[in-house]
Every structure is written in C-alpha cells, then in structure tokens.
Amino acid sequence: MGQGPLRVMFIMLIAASTAACGTGAPNPPPSLTPSPTPSPTSLPAATSYDEFAASFCSAFEALFGAVGNPDTAAWSEPSLALDAAVAAHDGVAADRLAEQIIGELESGRRDVAIGGGWPPGAPVMDQLDRVFVAFEAWTTAKVALAKGGPGAIDPQVAFEGAGGVEAWHAMFEAGRAMSSQRPGEGHHCANVPIGI
Questions:
Q1: CA separation (Å) from 152 to 18, 19, 27, 138?
Q2: Model-level pTM?
Q3: 105 and 135 Cβ atoms separated by less than 8 Å
Q4: CB neighbours of residue 125 within 10 Å
Q5: What is the pLDDT of residue 150?
Q6: What is the per-residue pLDDT across 3-38, written as a single tens digit (0 to 9) for each?
Q7: Read out DSSP for 69-129?
Q8: What does the domain layout of the chain look like in residue ranges?
C-alpha cells in the first residue's frame, strides 16, 4: 500500500466537493444514516492472512463500486449520477442513488468485519471501516444538498467530520505495521488496483 492513493484521495475529495448550501448538520432520511458498526454477518471471521486479504479486496471492490477509485479519482457511475442529481436539485433521484451507494458501502463493511478477525489485520480493517462510514456521511450530505435543505453541508466537510481523512492515513500506517506479520510479499487484488 503506497502513498499514491493517499495523495489522490485529497485531490479527489477537493475536486468532488459541492459548494455548501448552509451550515449545520445534514438531515438525511433515517434509512440513509450511516450505521455506527458493521452489519452483523453469519460468515466466519478471517483466521489467516489469506482470508484477511480476500476480505480486504472484496471491501475495496465495494468501495470502488460505490464511490469510485481513490487511486485514480475516477468516480463510479452511481456517484456520478448522484452528483448530477445534486446539480439538478433532484432529491428523489438522490435518495434512490444514495440508497444504492450506501448499500454497497454496507456490503463492504461486512467484508471489513470478516477480515478484521485476523488479529494482525484488525487495525487495518478498523480504519477501513471508518473510511466507509465517512463515505456514507459524504453521500448523505450530497442528498441533503440535492434537497436544498437549510442544514445541508459540504460533502467534504461531512467526510472529514466523520474522520475519513484521519482514517485513510491510519489505514496505511496500520498496513505498514502489519507487513512484517504477513507471509511473503503480500497480496495484490485481482479486480481492483490495490494490494495489502
């Protein structure tokens, strides 16, 4: 895990921010409120590096599918469509798209919870979960902007307020610390351009 994605993440967040429409907290519908903990899963927790790595890759596939690729700042189709709904002040479309995006993020959080069962990888997954929660806050802020509510805030502010930037930093730090406990050279994900 290198520094490239971190640098691009800041550019991505700045470039994608929508102008704030006011101050205060967003007022998303209850169904779009980010959950504080990973959703329960009946799947067994990871007990090995290989199982951890598989969950890590699945989680990043969900992240890329939901919001886009942080390494290239290429937004996903649902995220681009949500931006268009914000620009059009189409709250109905924004609700529908946010439900899809948050559903994918929650799927990723379940992968994160599974991967966190391997003790050396748990700190990485803890921080990755915070990134997912921050992107959920980012998404709900966009819905509030689309609806033009008086409590709408800038999505980047929502992301940062949820600890997304700190979690992104901490995830890479935890990955470096974990590298001495993984076997071999590590694992490169098959479907997303990232490794652990």
A1: 11, 10, 7, 11
A2: 0.79
A3: yes
A4: 26
A5: 85
A6: 343 333 333 332 333 333 333 444 443 344 444 544
A7: ETTTTEEPHHHHHHHHHHHTT-HHHHHHHHHHHHHHHHHHHHHHHHHTTSGGGHHHHHHHH
A8: 4-8+46-181
